[in-house]
Structures
1.
Amino acid sequence: MNNLNRRRFMQMAAGLGLASAISNQQAMAKSNSTKIGVALLGLGGYSRGLLAPALELTQHCELRGIITGSPEKIPEWQQRYGIQDKNVYSYQNMHELANNPDIDVVYVVVPTSLHLQYCEIAANAGKHVWCEKPMAMSTAQCQRIIDVCQQNKVKLSIGYRMQHEPNTQRFMQYRTTQPYGKIQHIIAQAGYGGNGLPASNWRMQKAMGGGAMYDMGVYPLNGVRYMTGLEPIAVTARHDKSHPDIFKEVDETTYFDLEFANGLIAECGTSMVKSFSQLTMQCEKGWYQLRPMSNYTGVTGYTSDKQEFAAIKQIQQAIQMDNDALALQGQGQLLVPGEEGLKDIHVVQAIFESAAKNKRILL
Ligand code: NDP
């Protein structure tokens, strides 16, 4: 898109009567900072409610740009976060990011079916990519995202915030230290209560990547994988619907058992109408549990010998983005590279196949 079109896009935003009023001081401070410059792509609920506020708390990165299809959102975001005109993009002109040194990372926070498309444009513009979970609709799409990032020599990280959460990390270490002996059985559940969403919401639309398994099911799935450090060898799944008139296209509740080569079984569940959240490891000599296991706050660790690890006070998303920013600055490894997202989608596909065919699927 040329300059005229870019100007028109900004004029549309200003024409809504909320022209940007960021202070020069605010803008200059951001341009001169050595922090990693982040542009949020898609200014929906998660960007607005969680990521943008968390970016204000980070030490190693900051919100410098926005990419949106909604011009009416621009003035408020510019004002609230001191974002300069030159760092505001539409989905049509975002390839021009290639000429913008202020932006190091594009954080893709749109419906799942759109992740590939925008990760690709961001990587081709030479920007590192942070991609929200679930990574994409299929393993082919996930692989394409990995490939395009490699080709452009940019880093790719998936927004699995739980892998950055300290209580979760503490229990992840137990797979090596085994303070309660070997894990013998796992229960992993993540779901939110309610009666579904309007049909117009992308989470209720199959083609957009809606449904419980893609939205919430990746938490227990990823959780079992990071708690064991193992990959499942088979899966048996089934769907359950208490509101078939509302959940016409997508899965409402899905149960899946993951089998591992050592005989371990993880009993997993996810739902858009049932509220449950736990990751419980039953071991030879006791148990340990995260409850809730995937909520934004309150993730608490419990053990059979009555230890309790209180929920952290920090914001999970700020820890996640700081860790990822440090890795981009050469300090440490990315904790959740693209391959992590791909491995989950491989299992997600098998879960749908298992439920559809009513049979155990080998992975
Ligand atoms: P929302 O529906 O609230 O927002 C999505 C935004 O994407 C829209 O506001 C819009 O932003 C943009 N968009 C672009 N094209 C479309 C389209 N065709 N239909 C709908 N929206 C479109 O979704 P969320 O913010 O809740 O979720 C976005 C992503 O973040 C998903 O992948 C989700 O799984 C993930 N997520 C992750 C969470 C986590 O804890 N890690 C929590 C919540 C979500 P604009 O108007 O600016 O173009």
2.
Amino acid sequence: MTSVANIIASAATVEQRSRTMLGDTITFGEPTDITTTCDSQLSTEPWQIDTEPGYGPGASTNDEAPSTAPHQGPIPAEYTDASEAELDARIIAAKETLGDRLKILGHFYQRDEIVKYADFVGDSFMLAQAAKDHPETEAFVFCGVHFMAETADILSDEQQSVILPNLAAGCSMADMATIDQVEEAWEQLMQVLGTSNDERAEVIPVTYMNSSAAIKAFCGRNDGIVCTSSNATTVLEWAFERGKRVIFFPDQHLGRNTAKAMGLTEEQMPLWRPYLPMGGNTQQQLEDAKVILWNGFCSVHKRFTVAQIDKARADYPDVTVIAHPECPAPVVEAADGVGSTEYIRKAIEAGQPGDVFAVGTEINLVNRLQAQHPEMTIFCLDPVICPCSTMYRIHPAYLAWVLEGLVEGQVHNQICVDATVATDASVALERMLAARP
Ligand code: 13P
Ligand code: SF4
């Protein structure tokens, strides 16, 4: 059973390793003044920063990228030097040549210059489903981030290829949980909680889609499951039918907001800090826990505050505030609606002329919704234009490069998940798809 001393000793190196990655910069609850912390100088083109370490400009600029985060090498100057009009013509020509052999998948947070070429635009759940539902497609070009492309590779057939136009398009939140940290945490939990004496497991691992394929595979191997922001409640219900408690990777906010909406209290949701023995918790806290929250967050969504909501309500008394569940709990609780990017899109779609919406999510989606609905007023709660640093890495120059590569029979930037990892990860993903309400 428990050997807390052993756990503390073995966790010492983990603490050092993880501190280097996450640093001491994590703040909890309401940030004080974050209006000055966003490097929004996105006039820099991605290829000017791809070779530099870190996430570059945008919301994740202050996050520490792990050394394992993929880098993008240089692409030919004929693409980076090309004008917008030239790239447009080349992308359209390549798309026409490739025809039905190709599907371009675009996440809602992509810039408009990319979204206009997408065959499917959606949230991470819809895009995963699109990859699964099109066995006739030879190549998916995924205009989104790395974990989404990995998921598409896992769910699609072996002979289909998934391409991420810029390999530096990762996700700082997904990088906040590494497979080594997760396995270390699991070992400690098993030592502390022991093996269950009844049918329900002591802990069920649940990972948000925004995590590496290796963590999804870990969940598949350990009777766990994946969730997205559109099905987190269903997935937690699935988990509680099978286990006494859950460990939720890597987004503490999605985990907390979902569990709170299900009636759980803060005391039942201790935070697991990967650099501390037992995640910084006592044995009693872990035994009493219902949802153990991994200490990760999204740097786009942590920028939203209750003060911003108060201001929106003062400026527009009839405003409807909608937030993504990656926002901190006080923001979600002060909002009128909460849900995935698709939920946000639908909520606004159902609005009437003259309606006002203040939205707590990434700026590209908010601006697009305003452009699509000029009869309404739609604005981002965050007064600073602070896009997702990694979604921004997908630029038409990279899209043209990978598409023309396909035309010439070359597959650039293919995302290939290791076969064993993919098999285990697909177990956890299929459980999610089956658990869908
Ligand atoms: P959705 O699942 O709502 O598309 O969110 C993905 C994401 O990365 C949000 O930050
Ligand atoms: Fe990751 Fe946040 Fe960007 Fe989504 S918005 S891809 S969670 S960093």
